[in-house]
Write a structure and sequence with these properties.
Layout lengths: L1 E6 L2 E7 L9 E4 L6 E4 L5 H7 L7
Antiparallel strand pairs: 1-2, 2-3, 3-4
Length: 58
């Protein structure tokens, strides 16, 4: 999944965060240069709804 923030002229991708990146669950990552930033689902709830894995409650 991509986010609206760009790096190197392309949208950054959401990737799962590493344990040392806690409390963040996802990182915004640029595959062009390797730059990454923590991504907080609370900052963009519209994307967060799509990016956050949903539990199967059936």
């Amino acid at each position: 999944m991509t986010v609206d923030i760009e790096c190197c002229g392309t949208p950054m991708s959401l990737i799962p965060a590493r344990p040392q990146d806690a409390p963040f669950e996802y990182l915004m990552y640029c595959y062009e240069c390797g730059h990454y930033e923590p991504w907080d689902v609370d900052e963009d709830p519209a994307i967060g709804c799509e990016a956050t894995p949903q539990e199967d409650r059936s």
